[in-house]
Amino acid sequence: NPDLVFEADLEKVAGWTGAQLHLYGLYNNGNSISDLVGDSHAVSNIETGVRAFRLYEAWIDQKFGDAVSLRAGLYDLNSEFDALDASGLFVGSAHGIGTDFSQTGQNGPSIFPSTSLAARLQVEPAKGWAVRAAVLDAVPGDPARPGRTLIRLNRDEGALLVGEVQAPLGEGGKLLLGHWRYTARFDLTDGSGTGTGNSGTYLRAELPLSAAPGRKLDGFARFGTASGRFNMFDFFLSTGLKFTGWIPGRDEDEFGIALAAGFTAEPYRTATGASAAEIAVEATYRTQLSPWLAVQPHAQYIRRPSADPTVADALVLGIRTEIGVDLLGL
Predict the structure, then answer these.
(1) pLDDT tens across 2-23, in order?
(2) How far is 184 from 155, CA to CA, in rounded Å?
């Protein structure tokens, strides 16, 4: 999964006060671990299932003073919404954006790997506090041609509306409360027709549990809901711990263990005979071998992939290598 990111301070480059340009392209070879596992959470947060190079993000962010900013363009909502630092260590996708949210829409919400045109407003009224809201095209890309980057505004497809409040929690922690809603109509899970009201709410938090000299322990948790009339999972829960610098002389190394569980909606169970939940447990260790090279072995156990009682549980053993290079450094 090669990423190529270009950022420019437009005030320095072109005299545009308070503006920043962000361009992000990515390529993926299309191979899928989840195709082998059969899960819904997605055990790898960098797979797409489609071989393609695409424009992933392209936006301009305009600041108004120190507290307000407006961002518009191709936008990954998970870059700011439903995102915390501690859970970002893990390989499983469910620890990036909750499965309750990521399962929604005709082609998913505007997240990796397909994004849509959006406008986001953010206000930071005090230290540690933020209020952000976004309006997004509800169908990112082209569901019929998943390898294409496409911007198409269609009245029938509607919009995705997202709002989030961020508050400080304890000493160095964060609390997020968010709500999302689609304006379009969706097929009902029980096959009885279509309806409106595809929406959900999430609450997530991270909190430093220990900050001894040279080492840290952070805990995190998330609870989310989604309308069971339209979606496979109507409840989602995740939690975990991240240890940083616990090996002498390895201050940047991180170890973590986490759990994610998606609980199926009653209409979905009735229609498909699904099990009550899909549960994934992950243990991972990330070591920074050099400023530009990191290696991350990980193990995941998935109970009832896709909540399908006919699919066997899965044990996934993997190793991820990350290479990061600043090409310009301007």
Answers:
(1) 999 999 999 999 999 999 999 9
(2) 9
Residue 330 has pLDDT above 60, yes or no: no
Residue 115 contacts by C-beta under 8 Å, 6 or more apart in sequence? 56, 57, 74, 75, 76, 140, 141
CA atoms within 13 A on the CB side of 205: 12
Q: Round to whole Å and give the CA distance between 27 and 53.
A: 4
What is residue 329's predicted lDDT score, i.e. its pLDDT? Answer: 61
Q: What is the DSSP string of 11-78?
A: HHHH--TTEEEEEEEEEEE---HHHHH--SS-S-TT--SSEEEEEEEEEEEEEETTTEEEEEEEE-GG
Percent of the residues in the chain that have a pLDDT greater than 70, as a whole number: 99
61, pLDDT greater than 60: yes
307: tokens are 């909540």
Among the ranges given (45-49, 77-81, 142-146, 265-269), the one the predictor scored with the smallest mean pLDDT? 142-146
Q: Would residue 293 be called left, alpha or beta, if left means φ above 0 and alpha means ψ between -120 and 50 degrees? A: beta
Q: Rounded to an integer, what distance in angstroms lies between the CA atom of residue 217 and that of residue 209? A: 5
Half-sphere exposure of 176 (CA within 13 A, CB side): 26
Cα-Cα-Cα-Cα dihedral sign, residues 49, 275, 91, 173: positive
The DSSP-derived string for 286-298 is EEEEETTEEEEEE
Top pLDDT among 301 and 330 is at 301
Q: Residue 165's CB: how many other CB atoms inside 10 A? A: 14
